[in-house]
Description:
Number of domains: 3
Helix content: 40-55%
Distance between the termini: 44 Å
Number of helices: 24
Structural class: alpha+beta
Strand order of the largest sheet: 3-4-9-6-8-7
Number of strands: 22
Amino acid sequence: MQDFIQELRHAARMLARHPGFTAVALFTLALGIAANTAIFSVADAVLFSPLPYATPDRLVMVWGMSPNRDRQTVSPANFLDWRAQTESFEGMAAFSHVPFNLAGDGTPEVVRGASVSANFFQVLGTPAALGTTFLASAEGAGAPNTVVLGHGLWKRRFGGDPRVLGRMLRLNDVSYEVVGVMPERFEWPTVVPTHVSAADAPQLFVPAVHRDIPQLGTDTTQDTSAWRDGNYLRVVGRLKPGVTLEGASRELDTIAARLAQEYPESNARSGIGLVPLREQLVGNVRSALWVLLAAVGLVLVIACANVANLFLARASARRQELTVRLALGARRSQLVRQLLTESVLLALAAGALGLLLALWGMDALLALVPPELPRLGAVGLDGRVLAFTLLTSLATGVLFGLVPALQASRPDLNGVLRQGGGGRFSGAGQRSRGALVVGEVALAVVLLISAGLLLRSLWSMQAVELGFRADGVLTWRVSLPAAEYPDDARQAAFFQRLQERVEALPGVKSVGAVSDLPLGGDNIWRVMDIEGQPRPEAGDERSVGFQVVTPGYFRTLGIPLKRGRDVASSDRADTQLVVLVNESTARQYWPGQEPLGQRIRLGSDSDAPWRTVVGVVGDVRQGGALKEPRPEVYVAALQDTFHFILFTARTEGDPARLVSGVREAVAALDPNLAIAQVRTMEEVIASAMARPRFLSTLVALFAVLALLLAGVGLSGVIAYMARQRTQEIGIRMALGARPVDVLRLVLGRGMRLALAGVGLGLVGAWAATRGMASQLYGVSATDPLTFGGLALVVMAVTLVATWLPARRATRVDPLVAMRSG
């Protein structure tokens, strides 16, 4: 122990004697460690940390499965049958996302909420922090209206007052009694597919799975347990101990087959699928995070290679000291241990500095993270991240210190003592430094090509034709409580009056509304019958996206009217029912025919009314920016009103200036209502592109950092080699060599190393980018233009990095150089 303490003191003294060397190495390593710590903190929260539920490995999502194996939400009746008939689960719970108008207690606001089955919190294994969750009887028709608050809403709206229990709240103009408050650590299991991001987790919960909620526009006591066509529930289940995913899947397949026989109209060819909750939460984020971890890891390796080169140069200058110690009887293992102690001590100091840098930059990183990334609330510098930083620092110290220690601990005793401590490189030392530089350049090439592919992919995504114009458009959502607006006529009248008021505001060009905005990804689907064509068999029905629109919607978003007319204010419930279709619907269902005048029926009910096609509009990417347009139909809002609707308004200037006017217009019509989801359409598009932008931005940043480190490393090696050959260069110049000959000599060495690194990097990039194909859009993982172009960029950077020390070498005074030998 005494020896170890002495070695630490000696290492600290040696580092302190060379403050310039120590500062450069320290900062280089700290940057790499900080980047790794920050990215690992995100990846750890999403990929590795246990979910905050009891025995989370037994939690699974239970989905309805279409014939083509697409995951689907579930109807209340199917959910109740699954829960009653399965023996593989301890419990099965359902939930859906619902916005609530919270009024009567301060300023009205729209609060994100969820309707859940009474056993939802028991299935997750998360009790209330204050009060209780729901009784088993709470979800039945006619049960009292109760609500559980999220911790954030409780603190923000009610000041964390424990006396909130028993208080009556007005939600959608209906009274609810507060029975509990969830703990601060409770995490909502945000799942894909859903339009609700992790940042938009519900703030209150009501037990309303198989009775309708006020939001849906019907009586709160209506029993929906027989609904088999209305698929809107998501289901989470807890497997019994010892039950495997495969065993539970087999049982659910049997249940699905049984229900298909009993209810062929709704359940034919429908299946049931299981997905572990962890896998469901992570979704396709997993591969993106692994790409980031790999990229930031390569940056650290390049930083280590740079510092290793610094240590090799320093070891060369210390050859006489080390040789004398060996001559006096020191063992080689002692020298290796001493040199490794110095490198590890430096790495630990860099780790501490890197931790501070990561803590300082965490807010900036989280600002880049897309809001739909799961478990964002769990991101932080906790004990697991601190342990990772410590282990990374120790590994880094060994990684960059081992090769210099081994090289420096076996010098040529006779040669060194005869030279009197000259600091020339041995052949092995030169080869080591050259190999490190080649490796740095190769890794920089891999990172730069990966970033180039991601940036080209992002550019392709942004160039996708979305089918609408986003500039100058403001959007907001209005939800009407059924208690105050119990029928279609009142809802339609309110939306029409609001549209007229907003149209009258200064700077407004046009206003329209729709049930679901483009790129929303949570489209409503309806079965479509076509007059004169036979109805398909159960399970093969024609499914089309269903949208409710007001006059002015297509004009506001710049969606072109291809044929026919738009919906009009004269299209009311007592007039002919009309519908518009998009071009995909016209092409798919009336190929070579005129769709105008055709009649369709929407819904599985054979008694549903016929609607006449009066117009054809352009295709819009409704389901997402990267999803091809699918068949869509648009019905007039005054003929099929929704309880909620999303308004759009095109303005002359900044659309954000319209917000206050919209709030005043809503308050003038109903002071208990509030607007929600206030965004510009450009923000909607930015949100849709957030994940690819996050990935490409960070990888590009790491790639540039890696290229700079590789350039600095190459420049340092060439400069050192040029200094070692100062006498040789002086002799050459004394014998008539021109500066251009010296420049060619030094540049040649540097460019040979660069070429070797680029060649190796191209091979590595060809192999590495295949693993990130799922993150690319519109560009091949082996795109030759990206590979070739960025290889030339690396060569240009390395040429500059080599030219600088080569240029200095041409200014050597031959007489001074020969005397220095």
